[in-house]
Write a structure and sequence with these properties.
- This protein is mainly α and about 80 residues long.
- The chain has a domain at about 10-60.
- Helix content is about 60%, strand content about 0%.
- It contains four helices and no strands.
- The longest helix has 16 residues, at about 10-25.
- The chain is extended, with a radius of gyration of 21 Å.
């Protein structure tokens, strides 16, 4: 059995505590605005997030099926 030197759950908890401290005292809309600013200013996430907000891109991301009826090969 390997000896793990990295605890991803502890890392998540630490990040969560940090963010809770940053957002303490802010109302929901202020938190959302700050999160959007942070995402949009990120060099990796920003461009991807901007594309996801583009109406044309959102239309392309829709599921191709017209109805929720799915058939197996035997039924078709």
């Amino acid at each position: 059995m390997k000896n793990k030197t990295f605890d991803c759950v502890e890392m998540k908890n630490e990040i969560q505590r940090t963010l809770q401290g940053e957002y303490k005292g802010l109302v929901l809309e202020e938190r959302r605005a700050r999160m959007n600013e942070r995402i949009l200013s990120d060099p990796v996430l920003g461009p991807a997030y901007r594309r996801s907000l583009d109406r044309k891109v959102r239309e392309q991301m829709k599921v191709a099926e017209e109805s929720p009826e799915y058939k197996t090969r035997k039924e078709a």
